[in-house]
Design a protein that fits this description.
single chain, mainly alpha, two-stranded antiparallel ribbon, two-stranded antiparallel sheet, 4 strands, about 65% helix, about 0% strand, elongated, membrane, transmembrane helix, transmembrane
Length: about 625
């Protein structure tokens, strides 16, 4: 359990790390004390085998060996936990330094998708190699813990073979208070040992990820050199003063000297642990390297080896993005290629998940006209202070009107639902990245809640959107019904005794106000038309506005991908880069289409906001 949990300790903050280490320490000490009591009371005694031998205190010896292994693993885990904070600080410094190094463009003319792919690859490599869990799994202490688990596995296999060949299971079951379940317990625990050893054993092979597998030098044999980061935290504790209360000067001196002596001993003990684990790591490295060479030699004799590809050329640009604690141990080219291929396959998988329905909806866009015309300044406001707009809210409102129109084929409405749902997931990412103020957070929550109601219940503020409810009505009557209902909600909230706080308007007020302004804008447009618009024409008009708003929102997806790559918290960096890579894969075709559009020449700080778009488009010269 301790060997498996070592890498995960690196993903915790200091308080959580301390709590987990203390918890494991208490658990291990409790187990050891319990076993010692059982040995002392002869509850763990001897066993008689049918082979003719009688091993006195056989179980006691095995129990002592297991206790020694537990103590070793506990010591290694505590030594590792003392280094985690320092390792994170070093990785963060290296990350900030690598972040400032510009990557050379491979080609002068690169599309936006190619530039984003290069950008994501850079931060993917930085996130993978700078992941504290990856570093923890590669340090000598982790390798030593894996070898201890291997020893435990062999001991367990020896016991299984011994009992199978010469054990008297009936005699054991008769002596045990667990009777027949003793065998089941033993088998279950043996399976647990085998399964629990898999991950630590594979971590022993992490040495093959470094270049010294093929290139040895004397630096790799400097096992007795203990780097400063192993003991830095202990030195900081030693140098930091202890806050004293009202105690005498002599007492303060005794406490301070005692602290220095104890921490000095801890520093020396930490160095002993590190050097011991480095020796074990070096032995394991030599064995694994020689085994790999023998395997390659045998495979070369029996199989025709393909022409080796030069990974140094492939990974030349991303080598500067690799974060490593020990400069003497560089990652092998095949490791970097594996990391790059992992990113490519991850993006390719996301590309296959791209929603074709959304692309079909975006085909109906003719530009960004819908951003300008979905709301009109000629609509009289029902509120003293008009609410701001977001990308997602008008899209959800327009969709509510579209799905309520009768005489529209069911599959067409279903396609609209599917495409809007996919598009909203991207719109929410844009809003989360740039709309951080309380006003926009309230808008996003209201939009998400409203969409959940529309998608799952086919209702708008508890009013059914079933086509049967609007059967026989003209388009103008349907739009007017939505407008009147929205106006009722707004007026009802305004007339409440306590009033509605404009600083934090409710979901109902936000949704109703949006519906009122959009429907009033549509009614003004219908009044200017001499001919009555049909339901299919209105549905197509609403689809076009939704597509235009989506396209305007998606112009900032490349910026969202860039921001998602640059996560500040080291523990969340890898997950954030994966979100960016997945977003790049799923929006590749959308970004390619955006390159063909003429995007308004707006300030970068204004482009994430739909109100700024409307203001720019209204004053733009046609």
């Amino acid at each position: 359990m301790m060997a498996n949990s070592m890498p995960s300790l690196a993903s915790m903050d200091n308080k959580t790390l301390l709590a987990n280490v203390i918890g494991l320490f208490i658990l291990d000490i409790t187990v050891i004390v319990n076993v010692c009591i059982q040995i002392n009371t002869k509850a763990i005694g001897h066993i008689h085998l049918d082979l003719g031998y009688r091993y006195r205190s056989f179980f006691a010896v095995v129990a002592c060996v297991y206790m020694g292994m537990i103590l070793l693993l506990l010591t290694i885990m505590i030594s590792s936990s003392l280094t985690i904070t320092t390792l994170k600080e070093i990785l963060e410094l290296k990350y900030q330094a690598a972040n400032k190094i510009p990557l050379p463009d491979q080609r002068i003319q690169m599309s936006i998708v190619e530039k984003l792919r290069q950008h994501v690859r850079r931060y993917w490599v930085m996130a993978e190699t700078g992941n504290p869990q990856f570093v923890m799994a590669s340090i000598p202490l982790s390798t030593a813990s894996g070898l201890i688990c291997v020893v435990g596995l062999f001991i367990n296999l020896f016991l299984v073979i011994l009992f199978t060949l010469g054990g008297n299971w009936e005699h054991i079951e008769d002596r045990s208070p667990y009777k027949w379940s003793t065998t089941a317990i033993f088998i279950t625990q043996s399976i647990g040992v085998v399964v629990g050893t898999i991950a630590p054993v594979f971590r022993c092979f992490s040495v093959s990820s470094f270049k010294f597998v093929t290139n040895w030098n004397m630096n790799h044999f400097m096992s007795f050199k203990v780097e400063s980061y192993w003991t830095q935290k202990l030195h900081e504790w030693k140098q930091s003063p202890i806050p004293f209360l009202s105690i005498s000067r002599r007492s303060r001196s005794i406490v301070s000297n005692s602290k220095d002596i104890i921490l000095s001993l801890c520093i020396k003990f930490q160095k002993v642990v590190v050097v011991s684990c480095k020796v074990i790591w070096l032995i394991a490295a030599i064995l694994i390297v020689n085994c790999l060479r023998c395997w390659k030699s045998l495979m070369g004799r029996w199989c025709t080896s393909p022409i080796a590809s030069r990974t140094d050329d492939i990974d030349e640009d991303i080598n500067i993005c690799v974060l490593q604690i020990d400069t003497n141990l560089e990652l092998a080219g095949k490791t970097l290629k594996s990391i790059s291929n992992c990113m490519n396959s991850f993006i390719l998988k996301a590309v296959k998940e791209e929603n074709n329905k959304l692309l079909e909806l975006l085909e109906k866009s003719t530009g960004f006209k819908g951003v300008e015309i979905f709301d009109s300044d000629h609509v009289q406001s029902l509120l003293s202070v008009e609410l701001i707009n977001s990308w997602s809210l008008p899209i959800v409102t327009l969709t509510c009107i579209a799905v309520a129109l009768p005489n529209i084929p069911r599959d067409t409405v279903g396609s609209l639902f599917e495409s809007v749902g996919e598009g909203l997931s991207y719109a929410y990412l844009v809003e989360e990245s740039f709309h951080c103020s309380r006003e926009y957070v309230n808008l996003r929550k209201a939009s998400m809640s409203l969409w959940h109601e529309v998608e799952n219940k086919c209702k708008w503020l508890d009013n059914p959107l079933a086509k049967s409810a609007f059967e026989g009505k003209t388009t103008t009557e349907i739009i007017k019904w939505f407008s009147d209902k929205a106006k009722e909600f707004v007026i009802e909230i305004k007339e409440r005794p306590n009033g509605e706080l404009m600083e934090k308007p409710s979901k109902i007020l936000i949704a109703a106000n949006s519906m009122y302004r959009i429907t009033q804008t549509i009614l003004l447009s219908l009044q200017s038309n001499r001919e009555q618009i049909t339901k299919k024409q209105l549905f197509a008009h609403l689809n076009g506005m939704i597509a235009d708003i989506f396209f305007a929102c998606f112009t900032y997806i490349p910026r969202v991908i860039t921001i998602r790559c640059q996560e500040s918290l080291i523990e969340k960096r890898e997950a954030s880069v994966k979100v960016a890579a997945k977003l790049l894969g799923k929006t590749t075709k959308i970004i390619e289409r955006l390159e063909k559009l003429q995007v308004p020449n707006m300030d970068d700080c204004k482009m994430p906001y739909i109100d700024e778009w409307r203001l720019y488009l209204k004053h733009a010269i046609p």
